[in-house]
């Protein structure tokens, strides 16, 4: 799929959707993270919980995504492109770049320059282990799983921790083939 | 300073759904419907309080971002009008449909098309349970009440807020406590 068209598609859907205030979104996410930190008292547990919540979101997000987009991804490159240009544009209003492919073309990085979730966030030194955006990793994993792609997504670099940009590393483990032929009718 | 003007409703719903789910479900094996069914009266009140508190902080902060110039509204009616117009517009993209007052500090706001209720959906892996869904809506509304309360607090008014789903739409009741200014 051409790079341009997937971006345009994401933008169109973005323009059509009804929206809530971006600050409200950012604060809500922030309050969720704070709540988790208070309740769980263990940062790695917080990270895990965020990922799980993202996963649940991803499972449902993909339904909405597929109902609004007519996409077929033949290669992993297509998939990456659609996530970066359509998916992120559609739900967060930002696009990200796909880079750092490995030789086998089953690992790639999504580079996020800025995103509405971290708009008002500053991470204290005490929370260096916190993966603030781990939710996004979960969303990607959940959404991909519903289209039969098993993947692992991790937060490699984080602009909140002084890196220039945020990098999400996606590793495609396997693509599950259809086990049965679709019915004729 | 903001990169985006807004976030699609759908994305926000998914997030707030997860927030509420996280509040209600305590063990990971439990499904949401089961968790909703098992809640006792006291637990429901407690969780609602928790969500309200969460919303309160958010409302307070959001109002800080929409009050661009220094406004000093002395009159409670004006404060409520501000909430019904500017605050609501900012949060939900529309004005409150109707505002009523008994002139003794009780205000009733009606939103006939409360978008969040129209498109909020539950995981319906279990058979759809009406009662559970209603409970879930009420949890969501507690959170919204918290946001309203926070907004009012940010404007210097301390109040109590309640919400109820009625046939024609959503009804929010705001009861003012003593005015701060």
TrEMBL record, chain A:
Signal peptide: none annotated. This is Trafficking protein particle complex subunit. GO terms for cellular component: endoplasmic reticulum; Golgi apparatus; TRAPP complex. InterPro entries: Bet3, NO_sig/Golgi_transp_ligand-bd, TRAPP_component. Its main location: endoplasmic reticulum. Homodimer. May play a role in vesicular transport from endoplasmic reticulum to Golgi. Keywords: Endoplasmic reticulum, ER-Golgi transport, Golgi apparatus, Transport. The keyword Ligase does not apply. Belongs to the TRAPP small subunits family. BET3 subfamily. GO terms for biological process: Golgi vesicle transport; macroautophagy. It is found in: Endoplasmic reticulum; Golgi apparatus, cis-Golgi network. Pfam families: TRAPP. The keyword Glycoprotein does not apply. The lineage of its organism: Eukaryota, Sar, Alveolata, Ciliophora, Postciliodesmatophora.
UniProtKB/TrEMBL annotation, chain B:
One of its GO terms (biological process) is endoplasmic reticulum to Golgi vesicle-mediated transport. It holds the Pfam family TRAPP. One of its GO terms (cellular component) is TRAPP complex. Belongs to the TRAPP small subunits family. BET3 subfamily. This is Trafficking protein particle complex subunit 6B.
């Amino acid at each position: 799929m051409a790079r341009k068209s997937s971006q345009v598609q994401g933008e169109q859907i973005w323009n059509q959707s009804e929206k809530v205030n971006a600050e409200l979104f950012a604060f809500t996410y922030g309050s969720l993270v704070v709540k988790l930190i208070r309740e769980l008292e263990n940062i790695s547990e917080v990270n895990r919980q965020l990922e799980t919540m993202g996963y649940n979101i991803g499972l449902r997000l993909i339904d909405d995504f597929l109902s609004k987009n007519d996409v077929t991804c033949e290669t992993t490159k297509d998939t990456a492109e659609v996530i970066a240009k359509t998916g992120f544009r559609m739900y967060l209003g930002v696009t990200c770049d796909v880079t750092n492919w490995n030789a086998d073309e089953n690992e790639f990085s999504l580079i996020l320059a800025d995103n509405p979730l971290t708009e008002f966030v500053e991470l204290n030194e005490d929370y260096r282990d916190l993966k603030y955006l781990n939710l996004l990793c979960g969303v990607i994993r959940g959404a991909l799983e519903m289209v039969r792609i098993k993947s692992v997504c991790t937060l490699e670099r984080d602009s909140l921790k002084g890196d220039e940009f945020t990098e999400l590393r996606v590793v495609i483990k396997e693509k599950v083939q259809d086990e049965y032929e679709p019915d004729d009718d | 300073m903001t990169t985006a003007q807004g976030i699609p409703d759908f994305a926000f719903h998914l997030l707030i759904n997860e927030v509420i789910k996280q509040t209600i479900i305590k063990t990971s094996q439990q499904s949401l419907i089961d968790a909703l069914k098992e809640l006792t009266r006291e637990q429901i009140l407690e969780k609602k309080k928790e969500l309200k508190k969460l919303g309160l902080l958010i409302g307070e902060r959001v109002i800080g971002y929409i009050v661009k110039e220094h406004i000093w509204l002395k009159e409670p009616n004006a404060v409520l009008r501000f909430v019904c117009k500017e605050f609501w517009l900012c949060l939900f993209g529309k004005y409150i449909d109707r505002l009523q007052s008994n002139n003794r500090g009780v205000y009733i706001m009606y939103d006939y098309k409360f978008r969040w209720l129209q498109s909020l959906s539950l995981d319906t892996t279990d058979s759809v349970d009406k009662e559970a869904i209603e409970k879930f809506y009420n949890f969501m509304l507690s959170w919204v009440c918290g946001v309203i309360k926070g907004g009012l607090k940010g404007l210097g008014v301390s109040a109590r807020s309640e919400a109820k789903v009625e046939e024609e739409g959503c009804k929010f009741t705001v009861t003012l406590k003593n005015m701060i200014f």
